Structure formats: C-alpha cells, structure tokens
C-alpha cells in the first residue's frame, strides 16, 4: 500500500527552515510588543459569506483560489485566505467596547488554492498587523516604519524597496474608473485577454498591466490626480511627510492598485530586488469601508499590513548572515554498560536544569557506533562512561571540535562543560518568570 504523500503546495516545516521561522516570529513579536500591539488568532474556518461580502468577490481568490468546505450540516465554510476580514469580524464581535484604537498582530497559516511554485504555496504563513478605529495618516506611516524595522532587524536591510500609492476614496475612484473605461472604450482591440478581463471586472487593475502596449496607452490615459478631492491629497501628502520624518525611503508607484471598494487612501508594498514575478514580500492598505461591507452599520477606519513569512524566510536563508543553531546537543553521553546508563541518566536530567542540551545513547552497541552517531548529530562534547569510569565515578570527555580528550569527575562534569560551551547557546528559559502567584482573595466569614 502506498503511503499518502503531503498535499500539493503544502510543506512540512522543520530543521533549519523552522529555526528561521522561529527567529522571524521572535523579531516580529518584539517589534509589535514595543508598539503596543497584542496578538490575535482567529479561527481557520469562517462562514463563506464573510469572504464573499468582504474580500475578493470578483477576484481570482474567490472565483478560483478558495478552500471551501461543506460541514456535516451542509453549511459552506472557507479556510482563511487572508486575515483582515477575519479580524474585522472579530473586532465587531468582541472589541467595540475596548479602549480604541485596537492594535492587533497575527502569525497564522493561510490557504489559497493557487498553482504551487517557489514563493507561492497553498498553505503559507502570514505575519500581519491591523490598527482599527482610527483614521490618522501617522498610523499608516508608522505601520510601514514598523515593517521596515522588522526587515532591518532580520538583515534584509538592502534587499527591498517600499512602494506607496494612494487609492483615495471609493467615490473618487468611481469617477476615475468611469473616465478610464471611456478612455479604453475605443481601444479594446489593442488589449490582450488579461487586460480586457481587468477592464471588465476590475478596471483599476489595468494600471498594473505588464503588457507593453497597454503601458504605452496608459501614458495618455486620464490621470487620477485630476479626480482627487483636497482631503485625499492632504492625507497622502501627510503619509509621505511622516515617512520622511521616520526616515523611511519609499518610491511612489501610481500603478499600485487593488480594486476593492473598501480600500481607501494609502496602499503600499514591500518588494525585493530579485525581479522575479513573486517579488512581493508584503502588502498593506487602509480599508475604512470594510466593516460596512461585511454588514456593520457604520464605517470603521482601519489600516493593516501582512508579510508572507515563507518569502521572508527564504530570503534570509539566501542572505549572507547565518542563524546560530540553538538546537544543538552540547553534551552527548555514551555509556558502555547497563550500569553506566543508570549513572548518566540523572546527569542527563540535571543538565536540563542547568540549561544545557544533552542526550544519551539509548542502547549499548560498540563505542565506534556510538561515536559515529555523536558525530552525525554534531554533538559538541561527548562524555564516555565505561565499566572503569563508572566504578571510579569519572568520564572521558571528548571535545568534538578539537578532538582532545580529558578525564573529568562526574560531579564536576556539567559545570565543566558549561564553562566551555558558547554561553549564548545555553537554553535559558524559566517559565516561573512568566507568572506571578496570586494570593486567593479571602472572603469575610
Ligand atoms: P496579500 O497581498 O494577498 O495581502 O498577501 C500578503 C503577502 O502574503 C503577499 O505579499 C505575499 O508575500 C504573501 N503571499 C500571498 N499569497 C501567497 C502564497 N500563495 N504563498 C506564499 N506567500 C503568499 C493580504 O493578504 C492582506 N490581508 C494584507 C493586509 C493586511 N492588508 C491590510 N491588512
């Protein structure tokens, strides 16, 4: 019988890749916490209505890329392809009475039924953040700054650029879209199928066309700036001014559009310099009308951003910095006799209390076989306890880097190894530091 393989477009995350993911999560968590964001997790499944009302009704995501599920009562559910609508739904359900605005971040798996390729998976992780309830251009600029700080901290400093644009308000967009449609009405014969589809279904996306003929025509198309009201212009100018104050370099890109009704004002994208088609590291935008489109009676201003974690991880792995490996075994016990095993087992446990990662060989084949294994797992030190050593309460300690060996008393072994290993690699974590003991409240009799 064939063993089932993993589902296409989904990956097992382990080893070095997992270590980079942990690093990325750690950096992001710290950056968010410093800026008063708290973490939120929303369910993987939601009712299909949420996504239809909110997200991409006429886009590929809804028409082709959703993972739909019919539950046992024939309800249609969908696995989350993104988190913004999920968080807005949760906000309306849970946080309307909280101190506003609310700042949330998430690190969550997402699902899109796309054609799998490098940088594009069917299950992928996003690290994202949303600020809800406030409209202030400083928030848009600060979010961009926070993401830039994260990329700087993970050493991708010079590997990306920030593109920004304004897509104004939905009313202004409507007028502009009409003008754009009029302009292309007698030029359809010059458009390819893709651009024709865009013109019909999502006209703003035509600004994003990669077809050189369309790009040429666009030079003569109506300019959006002619359709903007003073407030929209001022909002965009303020975002740029704040970005300058925060020292964020950006380029303006007026083709940067996503044509959903509830987007407004700022959109931005972080792209790498690779020039490959999947160069988007993350997208962000303001979405003041989303709450209304999912059924809330009023608009709720909000702004957010999400990075594709896999894209960042693969970038860091290709960069010239290497992550320290903290999953190493610093001390590996080789025992050559069953009685020796009883001696090293308590030491193996005590090592754990001293933040030292250790492991012991479980059965007792030849010394050669055990040494081979120690080598294979890259153990830093090996403590060998044979019959004589056990009797004399010592071990032979082998430094696997230098190849030298010395006899060490067992009672000194752990402290001795600790002085020799690289301090950073000790795995300090004391769960007790994360809680406070609360005295039970005494009630009067
Ligand atoms: P998005 O542009 O659809 O935006 O996705 C954000 C990022 O997720 C992309 O820039 C990309 O790095 C990564 N990504 C998307 N699809 C895949 C895939 N199939 N495989 C690997 N990585 C992928 C959103 O999802 C919005 N919710 C972002 C947002 C939050 N806007 C406001 N708040």
Automatic annotation (TrEMBL):
InterPro entries xref list: aa-tRNA-synth_II (IPR006195), aa-tRNA-synth_II/BPL/LPL (IPR045864), Anticodon-bd (IPR004154), Anticodon-bd_dom_sf (IPR036621), His-tRNA-ligase (IPR015807), HisRS-like_core (IPR041715), HisRS/HisZ (IPR004516)
Database matches in SUPFAM superfamilies: Class II aaRS ABD-related (SSF52954), Class II aaRS and biotin synthetases (SSF55681)
Record: residues binding L-histidine: 82-84, 112, 126, 130, 258, 262-263
Highest taxon listed in the record's lineage: Bacteria
Sequence similarity: Belongs to the class-II aminoacyl-tRNA synthetase family.
GO CC terms, sorted: cytoplasm
Species annotation: uncultured bacterium
Subcellular location: Cytoplasm
Domain Aminoacyl-transfer RNA synthetases class-II family profile: 1-346
GO molecular function, one term: histidine-tRNA ligase activity
Location, primary (coarse class): cytoplasm
Protein's UniProt name: Histidine--tRNA ligase
Phylogenetic lineage: Bacteria, environmental samples
Record gene name: hisS
